[in-house]
Design a protein that fits this description.
Radius of gyration: 20 Å
Shape: globular
Number of domains: 2
Number of strands: 8
Helix content: 40-55%
CATH architecture of the largest domain: Alpha-Beta Barrel
Distance between the termini: 39 Å
CATH topology of the largest domain: TIM Barrel
CATH class of the largest domain: Alpha Beta
Oligomer: single chain
Structural class: alpha/beta
CATH superfamily of the largest domain: Phosphoenolpyruvate-binding domains
Strand order of the largest sheet: 1-2-3-4-5-6-7-8
Order of helices and strands: HEHEHHEHEHEHHEHEHEHHH
């Protein structure tokens, strides 16, 4: 089911994030309807780097290509700032659309951007932010490729300015809007009550600036898409740290088997059986 159809269904959409093809496979296996290709998770899981503008369009495009090779789920792609002004945003949208993005997210931070839940963020002037969203909307080849417009203005400029920007994004054709890092349930309520006229996005970053509510609570406040952008990378990092420290400490893996999948289980995750079945079918058709 495409993303537009999913968004038209009643209730909200719970979307986990990923930064690698393995995470994407596991999201698909778990039965989710869509996937978020997170900039934070891509930097961390794909490159071992913090989300402070150290990766850009090419790295995101490479990761999307790998993800698209292993899942048919609709993919919302975090394209940071679009990596420049209108011309660069146009190139970013068309590149990611061509590679299979179902939606492209553009934000209004000044490059190099930072994770939305970090301090020290700076945003573009309002007219620049509006121009870039207009460029993103104008650049897409298909109306089925959705544009998610995110504002990080709440931190440096306040919630009122963030809502003004979100409204301006909608006026310039954004399909979804995302006011990042609201700091309280009351601020979430204000965003939901702003009557912006398009689906609203919220993300859950435990330990970040936004309260962690239940899915039903977020939906009740007016949010249509609830993202868990970096949990996969954080789960992997904790599990790997625990295992590698234990392996180093005791010198072998005995007694640690409950910490990892068997080879057979991992082969199942990465689709070995399908490849082997295809190979057997080709050999049979060739008469061998």
């Amino acid at each position: 089911m495409d993303l537009t159809t999913l968004l038209r269904q009643p209730g909200g959409l719970l979307v986990p994030g990923a930064g690698s093809a393995l995470e994407a496979r596991l999201v698909d296996e778990a039965g989710f309807a869509a996937l978020y290709l997170s900039g934070y998770a891509t930097a961390a899981a794909g490159f071992g780097l913090p989300d402070i503008g150290l990766i850009a369009r090419d790295e995101v495009a490479q990761t999307l290509t790998r993800v698209r090779a292993v899942t048919d789920l609709p993919v919302i792609v975090d394209a940071d700032t679009g990596y420049g002004d209108a011309e660069a945003v146009s190139h970013t949208v068309r590149t990611l659309e061509r590679l299979g993005a179902s939606a492209v997210q553009i934000e209004d931070q000044v490059w190099p951007k930072r994770c939305g839940h970090m301090s020290g963020k700076t945003v573009e002037e309002r007219d620049v932010a509006f121009r870039k969203v207009h460029a993103a909307v104008s650049a897409r080849r298909s109306a089925g490729t959705l544009i998610v417009a995110r504002t990080d203005a709440r931190g440096p400029l306040g919630l009122e300015e963030a809502i003004v920007r979100a409204r301006g994004f909608v006026e310039r054709g954004a399909d979804l809007v995302f006011v990042d890092a609201p700091g309280s349930a009351e601020e979430l309520r204000e965003i939901g009550a702003a009557d912006l006229g398009v689906p609203l996005v919220v993300n859950v970053s435990e330990g970040g600036l936004t309260p962690v509510l239940s899915f039903d609570d977020f939906v009740g406040l007016g949010f249509s898409v609830v993202l868990y952008p970096s949990n996969g990378a954080r789960v992997m990092a904790r599990s790997l740290r625990t295992f590698f420290h234990a392996l180093r400490r005791q010198g072998d893996s005995r007694g640690l088997e409950d910490q990892f999948l068997t080879l057979g289980e991992l082969n199942e995750v990465v689709g070995l059986a399908a490849f082997e079945s295809f190979g057997r079918a080709v050999l049979a058709e060739a008469g061998r």
